[in-house]
Amino acid sequence: MKKLVIKIWFFFLFSLGAFAQKEPLLLPNPDFAEVSEGLFPLENISIFVPKNASEDILFAIGELKSVILERTGKYPKTASVSPKATFQYKIKETGHELPEVSEMNGTSEREWYQLRINSGKIQVEANTSTGLFYAIQTIRQLAQGYGKNAKLPLITIKDKPKIGYRGIMMDFSHGGLLSVDEIKKQIDFLAKWKTNQYYFYNEVSIELDGFPSLGYKTGYSKRDISEIIAYGKQRHMDVIPFLNLYGHLHELLRNEKYADLSIGHYGHELDPRNQKVNELLTNWITQYTRLFKSPFIHVGFDETWETKRIADDVDMKISSEKLWLQQLDFVQAELKKQGKTVMTWTDMNNYYPEIIGKIPRDVIPVIWEYKPDTVEINRYLNPVLAEKRKFLIQPAVSGWGHIYPDADYTYTNIDLCLKAGIKNKTLGFINSVWTDPVEPFVRPSWLFMAYGSIGAWQGTSADKQKFASDYASLAFPKVADEMKSAFEYLQKSNEDLDKGLGRNTNGMPRGTIIESWSNPFLPYYLSNTAKHLTDFKNARKNSEEAQSALISALEKCDKNDAPFINSLLVSARLMHYNATRFLWAKTVCDRWNDSMLKKKKNDFVVYDITYLCHGLLIDMMDENGALKSAYEQSWNSEYKPYRLNTILGRFDVEHALWQKLHLKVNDYRIQNSPDHIATKPFEELFKPDF
Description:
Layout: H1 2-15, E1 32-41, E2 46-47, H2 55-72, E3 77-78, E4 87-91, E5 113-117, E6 122-126, H3 129-142, E7 151-159, E8 165-171, H4 180-192, E9 197-202, H5 222-234, E10 238-243, H6 250-253, H7 275-291, E11 296-298, H8 305-314, H9 320-337, E12 341-345, E13 364-368, H10 374-386, E14 392-394, E15 396-397, H11 407-423, E16 428-433, H12 446-458, H13 467-475, H14 480-500, H15 523-531, H16 533-556, H17 562-599, H18 605-610, H19 616-638, H20 644-671, H21 682-686
Parallel strand pairs: 2-3, 4-6, 8-9, 8-16, 9-10, 11-12, 12-13, 13-14, 14-16, 15-16
Antiparallel strand pairs: 1-7, 5-6, 5-7
EC number: 3.2.1.52
Protein name: beta-N-acetylhexosaminidase
GO biological process, one term: carbohydrate metabolic process
């Protein structure tokens, strides 16, 4: 009760505007906080670091120094002895930098910290260096102003997470493959929100000894992975292998050398009946477990529909459920030899209702559900609860179905999964980022990655109505207003496109991306555009507002944020272009048909459509070409080259549509007299196609 009273008093003080400085905004919200009057100048911080300080302590102190440098423009003072330092810290235990298997009992205090800032000192107490690191991340958020005006509020905070394992699963198989530098930026970003696990989803994107053709010049070397693991450890983030050791292996099985290991030639799943499969998996398991130091490993085992079809379509005597369990038993036994704790997805409960009770007790079920639907979540959760199994829960950022993530869909999915997880004492919370359609950048998902991480720490979701605004204030302090506006209009533009491209939109996860490059002159799309004129126009208006805000942000942002903001700008332009291509197709047809068929006069129609400087068709070619260049630049700032040409090809084919149409209309004009009146509709006469 005392804690609740203090929290209420904390926010009451803020509401009275008791302090001259800005009200402290903290995400995640701390477990306990009490504010006093006054401010502590950052330039008054002095630090003493003993010569025998461990690497993890040195790294945490280095983070504090970077905060002071960013805010004051100066390096902090060095104290000659510990008692003279204004920054004091006390760590109770050495080691324990990363999440451990023992923490599954839910009683761990490894990440607990206490931060006291008074008029003369900053004091941190923590059980481990992890708590010290998180206390400094809190100081980063508390910092206000720049130069001599850089200050901290006087405050006492005691904090620890509500969920022990808080992770992000990043897809390194379906879309573009992030550069190692971009992965490091993600880890830095996630550390600010106190994330402690980074799941590296891999099908065949990591180079393995004995498999030289897999991932050749496209994927990640073992040296890359070791570098990423070490980088994560410094920031108290465990890099966990998230493999697929059963299904989703088409990139392997499409090779002739391995095709006979699949169910169905060139399929997607390994065939458990083939002994060579386990020989291959034994090899992979040995290599992966030597590479990844984490005590945890996720083995996938989701969506093994082809195994189900063996029984349904080939031989009813086969028990596909037994094959699935047989394969999991084998994989789990091999990984246990390597000292690994295994996780697996539970969606096959959909096909085999009793399967949860048959999964080895040492295997941790992971419940994934990406819809904002409690009924769907409970459909997977209830069988796990009935078996009294410890579990993790996994929502997703719905960015793979749209150019820009579906915000409310994502927020609600995360909210419901978090609520279900907290209620039923989940071990952990994993937020997924998938890249199936390849085209959308991952950077627009960062906002929602932070949202999930923050909720997992504090045990309740942030206020989604004001989250983007709060996030912008903390993540982009120099251009907070511009970024607040950008996030608002990006969300609105996506919502409008969502209404306009409706046939596949409601069947998430695919969303609007399926239709965005379709032929806009087809009868279905011309009719659909007529029904959704307002939606497409609003998508353009909101995108234009987002672009204006982002362009303004680029003019005065921190230079390190410029590539990130530019990726959002390219995404906004892509949404604008998608709406435009449908509107322009209808406008071209309407302009021609109204003049030629209704008015029976040429009425400058060809000039409107094909004028070499400002015709409607030229508009599309100009913007398509400019977008292609901007898109390529943003891709190269985020990804490896793999799959770039696949996406750039879409721009090339798109350009051909408008270029061919431009030539057809001009040729028609050349072949007929200036006062010629056409007798067929535009779409019938010119048959626009790629």
